[in-house]
Amino acid sequence: MKWGLLLFFWAGFAWGTPATAPKEEVRKTVLKALPDVQTCYETALKDQKDLHGKLRLSWTIDDRGKATDFSVVQSLEPTMDDCVVKVLESTLFPKAPKGKVYRIETYPFAFNSTKASDSSSPQK
Prior knowledge:
By secondary structure, the protein is an alpha+beta fold.
């Protein structure tokens, strides 16, 4: 059985104070982490073949670029949620100004696995 994987996210943010996060830099940083996020999803699929849906996270980025204070706004599956949080915790983000933080609100990740019926099927 061959599985195709569609992993996408919407790049909309609701930013809090005291500092405005550089949206594009944060998005690019998350994009670099997507292979590890995809690994989380593929691992979770081994136990739950039909796992799909959205995971929405909020977190803070400090003045060292460290992601902390995660909260799961919308859970996909607890083990999967934890894995993605660990990936982002180990990712270096753009640094907030000295003594300030960036608050990332409701960053969505959407996951959907599709079973390819044959090798000639178009990839989406």
